[in-house]
Amino acid sequence: MAKSSRAAFFAVIAALAPACAHADDLSLRGTIEPELRLFTQSASSARQKDTDISVSGEATGKYMWGDGDQSLIVTPFARLDQRDSRRTHWDLREARYGLVMGKWEVRLGFDKVFWGVTEAVHLVDVINQTDLIEDPVKQEARLGQPMLRLRTTQDFGTFDAFLLPYFRERDFPGTNGRPAYDIPVDMDLTRYESSRKERRVDGAFRYSHHLGDIDFGVSYFQGTNRDPILTPALSSGGDLVLSPYYAQMKQASIDAQATKGAWLYKFEGYWRRELGREYEAATGGVEYTFYGALGTEGDIGVVAEYALDSRGLMARDPYENDGFLALRWTANDEASTSFLGGAVVDAETGAMGFRFKGERRLSDDYRLSAEAYFFGNVPRRDPIYSIADDNYLQFRIARFF
After folding, report:
1. N or C terminus: which one in the chain shows less Cβ crowding within 10 Å?
2. Are 343 and 325 in contact (CB under 8 A)?
3. CA 271 to CA 194: how far, in whole Å?
């Protein structure tokens, strides 16, 4: 985490400490989670190994006072990794002050915001930076984003306005890390389109509401694209590396979900302008749930989605012309047993990706989860070619406190 980000956070904590000392409600919860990754293919580099052990920890402290109208939430996260020094890191997922005044709410500090409804890819989710070293394939883990957020909930919808005063770069695996690009990313060579670099102030606005069975959101974002353009360069030692370049963009988007009995209909789409070029992307699909499937208490859901990007293979997102089909099983038991397995097929290149995730509580204090990611038939021109030899199994045991 950058020094200026830490300074801003501790300034907020110092200002709010007197109020917290008289908190009406204080709670603390967290997890410790050892992790084992087993790679099923030989690595592309001799420095990469077939196994990796790490452990992560996350804790959330919450103070509330003023009859619950004021709150302070702090969620630090840290991981210690056996192989990759870059994956050994810490982050403030949340460190925010909140004030509720009737139908209005203000939040200040590090926070996380999620936009989107589809399963395979979240196109419209652009506020927080991706924590790539935590979730390198599905890319759903997010870094905390410094922000000022103003929200009002009215009878005719909810309005959110965001002021984002500091940009956070994406972290990439080191030379020992897996999964990773075949050519390492040198973050010392990071460049920006904005002359203010990471201090460029971004802004966003969102309106969300529901009409009958339809929930929808309309959003606008203007600022630094969280997804960098990676270009070949030479490191200070003369080695071939990839240099991240963060461009400015404008994005208007919509996401919607309709619930019709056992059917869910989902859609996400955006229009963007970046580097003088306009392009669009969209994803959508359906999910049908068989309740009490096979005479049990469990439910089985069938998910089918498709994603398109007008840039084709020039898109930085691998979902440029891809179909996704998955099965979701929820046991509805005391152990919260669940499973999701699916496949992604690129209609342009024929590349395939398979993902599986299952989890179950072992007791009130422990949870076991297992994941698997496999790739097949991936040609060189496909965006995921660099990680196609990094198939892996992942096991985690979480201890709650």
Report:
1. C
2. yes
3. 21
